[in-house]
Structures are given as structure tokens and as C-alpha cells.
Amino acid sequence: MKRFGLWAGPLLFVAVLFYWPLANILGLGFSGEWFKTYLEPQTGSAIWFTFWQAIVSTAICLLIGIPGAYVLYRKSFAGQKVLRALITVPLVLPSIVVAIIFAAPSMDFNDTLPTNPSQTIKSTLIFPALMELPSTCWWSVGQPR
Q: What percent of the chain has pLDDT over 90?
């Protein structure tokens, strides 16, 4: 009974702050005519764009990350430790902070949505690839030395 008492607090915490909101969201999402939403042209377009963007960003990340990992972890050059440290920074920062750091130089803070096509390409293809680049470098070489 003492062990249950120790687990009651964390279980209640997870139940109230995770499962209860999740159940409410799922209940709202599947109520009404939710299936018709998936058949609308705008939804199909958004789903297609999401898949397309994910595939292209992954390809960019792999094309840059695997050769980059090879150079960073299999060759020796001046500044290698500094570059490794810079690659590690996005892994330890929260994702939103990294996204803001990458996006800030090209953003116009007067608009809420990018209107320039080059900003849209940067925000949907290049930034996700850059955010995953450190992970690609780390995972493609196994355990760094």
C-alpha cells in the first residue's frame, strides 16, 4: 500500500495534465462530421504539402548531414572541436528557440505570415533540415569520440 501511495501523486499528475486534455481534444476532434474535413480539397492540399515538405527536408538534411558527419568525426582539421560544439547547441536547446534563431534573420516582424516566396521556401524546407542536421550528424557516425 505504501508503494501505491508513492505512485499516486505522479499518476494523478499525468492523468490530469496529459490524459484528461488529450481525451477532451480527441472527443472534440471526432465529434460531428470530422471525416468530411479530410475530403475537402484544402485539407488534401495541406496533407500533400506536409508530406512533400517532409520528404524534401529529409533529403536536404541527409545530403548535408551524412557528409558533414563524416568530415566532422572521421577527419582532423583546425576548429573541429568548436564546430562540434556548435553542432551540439541545437540538440540541447528547446526546438522553438532553435527555430526562432534560424528564422529571425529572414523574418519581417511586421507580418504574421511570410508573404515572400523565398521566405516560405526557407521556413518550410531549409529550416526543418537545419534543425535536424545536428541529429543527423550525431546518429550517422554512431557514438562520437
A: 6
Alpha carbon distance 96, 85 (integer Å): 20
Neighbouring residues of 61: CB distance < 8 A, sequence distance ≥ 6: 128, 129, 132, 133, 136
At what angle are helices 41-74 and 80-92 packed, to 10 degrees? 150
The DSSP letter of residue 109 is T
CB 61, CB 136: distance < 8 Å: yes
Q: How does pLDDT run across 50-86, given as a tens digit for each residue?
A: 888 888 888 888 888 888 888 888 888 898 888 888 8
pLDDT under 70 in the chain at which residues? 1, 102-127, 130-131, 137-145
d(CA 121, CA 129): 12
What is the length of the chain? 145
Q: How far is CA 129 from the centre of its chain?
A: 9
What's residue 23's pLDDT? 92
Contact between residue 83 and residue 107 where contact means Cβ atoms under 8 Å apart: no
Closest CA to 101 of 135, 125, 124, 131: 131
